[in-house]
Structure formats: structure tokens, C-alpha cells
Amino acid sequence: MKKILILSIIFLSFLGFVSCEQEEIAAYEDTDNVYFSNAVFSPNGTGAELIDSTGFSFGLDNPAITKRIFKIPIRVQGKLSDVDRKVKVSIDPTSTAVAGTHFSLPENIFIGAGKQVDTIVVTVFRAPDMKTNSFTLILNLEENESFTTKMQTKVVNVLTQKTMSFIRYKLTFDDKLTQPAGWYAPYLGAFTAKRFFLMCDLMQLEPSMFAQKLGAPGLTIPDVVYYQTFMKRYLADQKKSGNTIYEADGTEMLFP
Fold first, then answer.
1. CA-atom Rg of the chain in angstroms
2. Tens of pLDDT along 171-194?
3. Which one-letter DSSP state was computed for residue 32?
4. In the chain, what are the domain boundaries?
5. Which residue in 219, 204, 212 sits closest to 180, CA to CA?
6. What are phi and psi of 235, to 5 degrees?
7. Which of 95, 97, 148, 165, by CA, is between 20 and 30 Å from 171?
8. What is the rounded CA–CA span in Å between residue 100 and residue 115?
């Protein structure tokens, strides 16, 4: 009797295992959905926070940079295809960015053949009015002959009821220059755009490095002391040769 009981348990366990296996390999029967990948999968696989919006500023970019290419991942839930499939993307009417002035999009957007993930390539232009205003571009995914948009939102915080959108992505951008975290005024003086970019140009420093905090690579105290010494010597040499360097407001440029 005991032997029969043991065999029965083994048999039932085997049936359960087979049932689970059958569930795991069941074919996907629903429609193919398209959604913004970063709302479900961590951006770049880094373990970073899930997002349905992001932003950036041209403020610390060299003045010669006139545009940026921003790639927004989109993903398929469903079957892959051996042909390119067109994705319908619309610009939300609440967007403040103007097509042709602040950004451009490809005429056609696709999920490429054999791909589960592709990108929407947004070209953002460095327009003059970005120095005083921030602009938003909101993209909406819509249904078409290739894809549905049944994945729409999910609640990510039960207490606050904050939601994450799978089919709406907000991109914010500007060109406002404010004192970056890595600018150490006791050695480099009051922050001004002219002083900042002149120093970076003369010493071939990447302006964006100053977005880091003091102590980061290139922004240790010895580094900052070197920048200060170099600029004081440069300004003194220029003044001695009759070419005094002035700030944008007309005052003489001086380092502490």
C-alpha cells in the first residue's frame, strides 16, 4: 500500500511538471503590441529606474554643437516578423516644441525585420529660444495595421497612485547654462559662460565633465588648482601683450 501511495505521488508530480512545461511553451496568440521599452525594461540594461520621460540640456555643450540625436527604444510584445513593420507615432498636442525649429522625426518609423527592439530617432536642434525656455516633445504610440497598443499604463506606486505610461513618452530639453556642480568658485571665481567656455577651450576640457561633483575625475582639488593657475597666467600674459580679456559685462576677467 505504501509503495502504491509513493508511486501515485510521483505520477501526479510528473503530470504537474508536464503541465507547467506545456504552459511555458504555449504559443503567443494575442495581437502584437508596441510600447516604449524603458517603461518596462531598465534603460540600457543598467538596472536604472524605469522611465516614461527624460530630459537634457545643451547648457554645458560646446557652442559649436548645434543638435543632438536622441534615440527612444520601442519594443514588440508578440511575434517577430521577417519584414519591417511600420509604427504609428503622433505628436501630442500638449507638446511645446515646434517641429522643424526644435526637433525633427523620421518620415517613417519601423520595427525592423527580425527585431524585438528598435528606436525612434529624434533630432533635437539647439534653437536660440532654448536659452530662456524649456520645451517638451510628447510622443504617442497609436494602433495601425501592424500593431495594437493594449499595453497602456501600470501603477508603480500604490500609495501615490503614480502611473507609468507604455505608449506615451515625454522628452524635455533646453539650453540654459547655470553653474554646474563641478565649478568650484573659491578657485575658479564667479561662474560666467564666457569664463567657463574660454577655460575649457584653452585646456581642451570637455564642458560636460563639470556636471559631476567636485572630487570626480578631472575635478579633484589638484586639478582645479591647476586650472586656476593656468588661467591666471594666461590672463596675465594676454594683458601684458595689450589684449586684456573681458567678461561679457565689460569687466576684466580675473581668477582668484
1. 28
2. 999 999 899 999 999 999 999 989
3. P
4. 33-174, 185-240
5. 212
6. -65, -40
7. 148
8. 29
